[in-house]
């Protein structure tokens, strides 16, 4: 019998939520790493029992945990993230240059073919790779050579938060950084291109065609169509049909085009989901109504999904890594809130129910569809 | 043997339930005790001090015999009572934040 495993990272530990394919009755395991911030957990599609977790605190720094039994037991692996060579400097808030300093791992992205190969997106922004199951990490330094001296931290830190591995081309990787923008490599991470043409940030970046500096919050793709990318930017929902070479806005009739996560339906490459947030200074849903918006047209035309979601007095946020989909039929959609709820829909978003309601603030949600 | 008391989260990480004991070859300095501790419990590397610079992490403090040793140099000799094992070397998570 197939099932679903939802990996939830929170401000005070990790939780694993499991169900069979009906997705009605859930078992909750956790907290794992109680008291630590878990920015991200992710599973290997090559070996679903191989999980990686990023565990950190301001006191004790960064730990990477690995599980080989689906999260029942964990083993700490390598936590040495040393920038390649002389780390150099990036732009600081006061316009001066500031040394690159490792703070934490925001994103862990296992290879689709090898459970021992995993990428880590870190703050201060850089991409690391391990080929030994997380025991050792090496930076792919070419990324920071793309005008890294002009990258500047956003309010959440200068984090590399999104890693998309092209399932058709192992040499192609997309990453996104706040507040530097989106980048692509076509040679396995040796050299990188900024892919920010078409993004507009007139208040934050008055120069229209600036190559780096955009505050990209999240990007997503459907594995069957890896040249089509969807982006939730600080403001604006964007789409690219040529692997990021050019973006155009698809915010359409959204009540606000500010937000953090964006996700693609598992079986409908043109169906996408966002959660509008009121503004950059008021990080909660417009009008106190928690609404997921779905576009079945790849953007521009959006419908509100509200069945089962609170429609009054709701002032939570949904962070950039806190929405994911399963690949069952019908597609399941999951998201976590800063209020500690994890909502699930087992019908592509038509209706929702909370799986849990009182976790610590949710930082990330990933979903594994189990055979 | 030198007794070392770890803060709660590091005891959990190292999978120990109480204080631990380490032996030091040569001078019993603060740095030598931390080297021995990290050798015995490799998962603690990077959690007390930086991997490369060996600088104490900002919210970690070292105490022994009622004294704050956090600002002592890495090569400072530990108090006799710690070397003899009558007093532990305490690694503390600083009171900071919520």
List the helices and strands and how they pair.
The complex is a heterodimer of chains A (371) and B (98).
Chain A: E1 3-10, E2 13-20, E3 27-32, E4 37-43, E5 51-57, E6 61-67, E7 75-76, E8 89-91, E9 97-99, E10 104-110, E11 118-123, E12 126-130, E13 138-139, E14 159-165, E15 173-178, E16 181-185, E17 193-194, E18 216-222, E19 225-233, E20 237-240, E21 248-249, E22 262-264, E23 272-274, E24 292-295, E25 303-305, E26 323-325, E27 333-336, E28 342-345, E29 353-356, E30 362-370
Antiparallel strand pairs in A: 1-2, 1-30, 2-3, 4-5, 5-6, 6-7, 8-9, 10-11, 11-12, 12-13, 14-15, 15-16, 16-17, 18-19, 19-20, 20-21, 22-23, 23-24, 24-25, 26-27, 27-28, 28-29
Chain B: E1 2-5, H1 8-14, E2 20-22, H2 30-40, E3 60-64, E4 67-68, H3 80-84, E5 89-93
Parallel strand pairs in B: 1-5
Antiparallel strand pairs in B: 1-2, 3-4, 3-5
Please describe what this structure looks like.
The complex is a heterodimer of chains A (371) and B (98). Chain A has 371 residues and is mainly β. Chain A has one domain: 7 Propeller (Methylamine Dehydrogenase, Chain H), CATH 2.130.10. Helices cover 0% and strands 40% of the residues of chain A. A 4-stranded antiparallel sheet of chain A has the order 3-2-1-30, with no helix packed on it. A 4-stranded antiparallel sheet of chain A has the order 4-5-6-7, with no helix packed on it. Chain A is globular and about 50 Å long. By secondary structure, chain B is of the alpha+beta class. Chain B has one domain: Beta-grasp domain (Ubiquitin-like (UB roll), Roll), CATH 3.10.20.30. Chain B contains 3 helices and 5 strands. Chain B has a 5-stranded mixed sheet with strand order 2-1-5-3-4. In chain B, a hairpin with a 2-residue loop joins strand 3 (60-64) and strand 4 (67-68). At the A-B interface, strand 6 of A face helix 1 of B.
